[in-house]
Amino acid sequence: MKTPHILLVVGGGIAAYKACELIRLIRKAGMTVRCVLTDGGAQFITPMTLAALSENEVFTTLWDLKNETEMGHIQLSREADLIVVCPATADLLAKMAAGISDSLATTVLLATDTPVLAVPAMNVRMWQHAATQRNVAQLRGDGVQVVDPDSGAMACGEYGPGRLPEPVAIMAEIERALGSALSTPPAGGRGEALRGKRVLITAGPTHEPIDPVRYIANRSSGRQGFAIAAAAAEMGAEVHLIAGPVHLPTPPGVTRIDVETAREMAAAVDVALPADIAILVAAVADWRTADAADQKIKKTGGALPVLQLAENPDILAGLASDPRRPALLIGFAAETEHIVAHAQAKLARKRCDWIVANDVSGDVMGGQNNAVHIVTGQGVESWADLPKDQVARKLMEKIVDAVR
Ligand code: CTP
Fold it and tell me: For residue 136, how far is the Cα from the chain centroid?
C-alpha cells in the first residue's frame, strides 16, 4: 500500500498542543503529514514546532506568493489522502458547515473532495450550543466524519463534553477513516458487489422528549442496523446511516447522521434521498408527546400529569409512497407474537418490498443475536438464530442477489 499522506489543520484552542503528539503518532504509523496552522492555532503553538515534528513546511496563509506558485492551496488538499482538522474549534466547524473560505485552512477545506475527519475541542457550553450541534449535524450530513469529544474536566474549569480525545484515540479514528479512504476492494469480490449503489439505513431508537429531562424511548441498541451499515459499506456501497441516540462507533466508510426524535429521523431521511436501497431498521417511537414541556414537570401533590400523545410520521410508509421511492425498500418488524402473520400484514400495509421480522419478546433488543424471518411477496424465509453481524452479511448478500 502507498504511504498515506495526512493534511493536518490545526485550529486555535488550548488543545492545539495535543496536535504535536498526534503528529508524532501519525509519523510513527508510517504516514507523512503536512500542517496548516490557523491564526488562532498560532496563538497556542508555533509553525516551528509543527515543522520540526512533521519535518515538512508548515502553511499558514492564503496570501503567500511563493507558496501559491510552488504549492497552491488546491494542490495542498488534493495530495492528501485524508484531511484531519484537530482541534476543530466551534468557529472552524461553523465556517466548514457554511462553506466560508476566509483563510488558508477554510479554503483548503472548501476546495477539496478528499475525506475530512474533524476532531472538535471546545468549552462544554460551546459544544452543546444549538448552533454548534446544528453545524456538526450539517457536516455529518455532508460526509465529514466528526469525532465525538470526550467528557471531563476542561482547561476552562468546567466539566462535560468538549475535551479533545487522547491522541491515540484520534490516531485510531485516522486509521479507520483511511481504511475506507484507501481501501481498494478486490475486483469481482464482495467489495465490488454494491459499488455505485447508494444505501440508506435507519437504526436505533428514537427519543421523544416529555420535558427537558425525560423522554419516551424503547430498548433498541442500534446494533443490527449498524451491522447492516458496516456490511453494506464492506460491499462498496455509499452508505448513509441515520442513527437514533446510541453509543456505537460509526462503521468504516459510512456517513452517519445522528438524530434524536422520529421527526428528525424523517427529515434526515428526506435529505438523504435519493437512494437505490433503503433498509429501515430503526425502532421509531410510534408516539411523541403532543406538547413537550419547556420546564421540568414537577410533582403537584397527588394529581398525576397527563401525557397527551401524538402519532409520529411513519417513515417507511412515507418512503413507499414517495416519488423518490428506492428501488428496494426494506422494513423491519419487531414483534412479540404471531411474528410472521404480523410481518405479512405490515408488508402489505406499509407497501415495502421485504419485511425482516424478529421476535423481540426475549433479549433481542440490546442483545447480540437475532433470529429473523424474511417476508417478501414471494414467501417467507426463516433463518437460524445468528450473531447480528452475520444476519447483516446474509441480508446484504440477499440484497445483492435481488438488485443484480
Ligand atoms: N417505522 C417507521 N416509522 C415509524 C414506525 C415504524 O419508519 N413511525 C418502520 C420501522 O423502522 C420498521 C417498520 O416501520 O422498519 C416497522 O416498525 P414497527 O415498529 O415494527 O411497526 P409499527 O408501524 O410501529 O407497527 P406496530 O407498532 O403496530 O407493530
Answer: 10
**Which has the closest alpha carbon to 275: 255, 250, 248, 253?**
255
CATH number of 5-182: 3.40.50.1950
- Closest atom of ligand 1 to 315 CA is 7
What is the distance in A from the centroid of ligand 1 to the CA of 230? 22
CATH class of 190-403: alpha beta
Extract the C-alpha cell encoding 229: 451499515
Are 219 and 365 within 8 A, CB to CB? Answer: yes
- In this structure, are residues 153 and 164 in contact, taking their beta carbons and an 8 Å threshold? no
Instruction: Enumerate the CATH 3.40.50.1950 domain ranges in the chain, comma separated.
Output: 5-182
Catalytic annotation on 35?
no
Answer yes or no: is the C-beta of 192 below 6 A from any ligand 1 atom.
no
Could you tell me where in the chain the CATH 3.40.50.10300 domains are found? 190-403
Q: Whole-model pTM above 0.70?
A: no
Q: Whose CA is nearest to atom 12 of ligand 1?
A: 332
Tens-binned pLDDT, residue by residue, of the chain (404 aa): 568 999 999 999 999 999 999 999 999 999 999 999 999 999 999 999 999 999 999 999 877 756 665 567 777 888 899 999 999 999 999 999 999 999 999 999 999 889 999 999 999 999 999 999 999 999 998 889 999 999 877 777 778 899 999 999 999 899 888 876 665 444 344 567 999 999 999 999 999 999 999 999 999 999 999 999 999 999 999 999 999 999 888 888 899 999 999 999 999 999 999 999 999 999 999 999 999 999 999 988 888 999 999 999 999 999 999 999 999 999 999 898 999 999 999 999 999 999 999 988 777 677 788 899 999 999 999 998 888 988 999 999 999 999 98
All three cell numbers of 225, joined, read: 442496523
